Amino acid sequence: METANFDGVEPSSIVATRYWHALEDGRVQCDLCPRYCKLKENQRGLCFVRGNLGGKIVLATWGRSSGFCVDPIEKKPLNHFLPGTPVLSFGTAGCNLACKFCQNWDISKSRELDTLLDQATPEVIARAAADLGCRSVAYTYNDPIIFHEYAIDVARECRKHGILSVAVTSGYVCAEPRREFYQYMDAANVDLKAFTDDFYHKVTGGHLQPVLDTLVYLKHETRVWLELTTLLIPGLNDSAEEIAAMAQWVVKELGPDVPMHFTAFHPDWKMLDRPPTPAATLTMARRIAMDNGVRYAFTGNVHDPEGQGTYCHHCGSKLIGRDGYSITAWHLDAAGKCRSCGSACAGVFEAQPGDWGGKRLPVRLRDYAPA
Q1: Where among 59, 77, 103 does a domain terminate?
Q2: Most buried among 30, 36, 175, 367, by the most CB within 10 A?
Q3: Are 354 and 85 in contact (CB under 8 A)?
Q4: Do 7 and 104 lie in a common domain?
Q5: Is residue 159 part of a domain?
Q6: What DSSP line would sit under 85-103, residue for residue?
Q7: What is the rounded distance in angstroms from the CA atom of residue 116 to the CA atom of residue 93?
Q8: Burial status of residue 222 (CB atoms within 10 A of its CB: 0-12, 13-18, 19 or more)
Q9: Does residue 77 have a cis bond before it (omega within 30 degrees)?
Q10: How far apart are CA 232 and CA 251, in angstroms?
Q11: Measured between alpha carbons, how far is 227 from 77 in angstroms, rounded to an integer?
């Protein structure tokens, strides 16, 4: 926990939250995620953005962001959700896990409100997404669960403009806030960081079971389109046995149609002693997943057009060709079925893919604010 007060935080950025309760010793317990931070007055939780102010848990970063950018949806990564379309991405600061390998540590591990230079109301974000031709907004860079109230307010406004919402998350959230949050999400990519509790405990400071609970909930109790990502770290979570066990669980508990992404680690943050992930490890993981019944498995963070394509689970035809974040081939009909054999491909598709390609466009939201 952070012993830090809220001096210097703009009053407009502090909003009340629902998921907490008072303890007999005068502290307040945050009930948003399974960390259950127990906080004294003016103390912040591990996530940094939620804390005890006036005997209540507040969010101190409403309406503030670490930056906005238009990305390809494939970068989230989502390969079966509106392929080829642009998505307006943003995040805030902080995180409710403590991953030693964090690839976005400058944002998610930030303890400085100066990181949150961009200010944007939900109305401005929705207007910007529409004006920029984005089909969706992604809550990403750090985990949107910790800015729960802000993300929901943005998603509500986006729905008024026909803009969909995408959560890029670790899935580390309690049941009640999870239900509220995913009422407003249309797609999610969940980091399944490993398939052992030992890894979660030692490397992320969390536990595996709450993440599995979130995955089962998303698949069976919502209409949210779901994809999974596992960053494979040499010697920690990349064994053939662990990957097989993970894939078998996914097929049994979630079904064969949930796409799995296996992505390459590079040394960062507090894990500089491990080498980058060999491309061969990603290829192995993809093959193991498919051998265990996963229909759609992909490699990421490497140049691998074969491993990034979507193939028909029935006849093997290439349905969507990809080179990095760009679509190179499209063989789905208007109903999302294989043009060769007529088998349906699981996903959220339109008659034609978007043509955004691999472009990255930083955006200043102040340009979309009312005069």
Answers
A1: 59
A2: 30
A3: yes
A4: no
A5: yes
A6: -EEEEEE-S--SS--TT-T
A7: 7
A8: middle
A9: yes
A10: 19
A11: 8
- pTM attached to this predicted model: 0.95
Radius of gyration of the chain measured on its C-alpha atoms: 20
213 touches 192 (CB < 8 A) = no
* Amino acid letter for position 192: L
One domain, residues 224 and 258:
yes
CA atoms of 268 and 270, how far apart (whole Å):
6
147, part of any domain: yes
Burial class (CB in 10 A: 0-12, 13-18, 19+), 278: middle
pLDDT in tens, the chain (371 residues): 544 567 777 888 899 999 999 999 999 999 999 999 999 999 999 998 999 999 999 999 999 888 899 999 999 999 999 999 999 999 988 899 988 887 665 554 444 444 455 789 999 999 999 999 999 999 998 999 999 999 999 999 999 999 999 999 999 999 999 999 999 999 999 999 999 999 999 999 999 999 999 999 999 999 999 999 999 999 999 999 999 999 999 999 999 999 999 999 988 777 888 999 999 999 999 999 999 999 999 999 999 999 999 999 999 999 999 999 999 999 999 999 999 999 999 999 999 999 999 999 999 988 888 76
Written as six digits, the tokens of 42 are 């003016």
Asked, for residue 75, whether it belongs to a domain, the answer is yes
Query: How many of the other CB atoms lie within 10 Å of CB of 21?
Result: 9
**Do 29 and 82 fall within a single domain?**
no
Q: Which residue has the tokens 């991405």?
A: 89
DSSP state of 248: H
**190 falls within a domain:** yes
The tally of domains found in the chain comes to 2
Q: Looking at the structure, tell me whether residues 48 and 178 fall in a common domain.
A: no
Which residues in 296-311 are b (16+ Cβ under 10 Å) and which e? bbbbbbbebeebbbbb
| Amino acid type, 172 | Y
The CATH number for 237's domain is: 3.20.20.70
Domain boundary among 14, 36, 59: 59
Domain extent for 49: 2-59
Q: How far apart are CA 114 and CA 126, in angstroms?
A: 24
Nearest Cα residue to 285 out of 233, 326, 219:
233
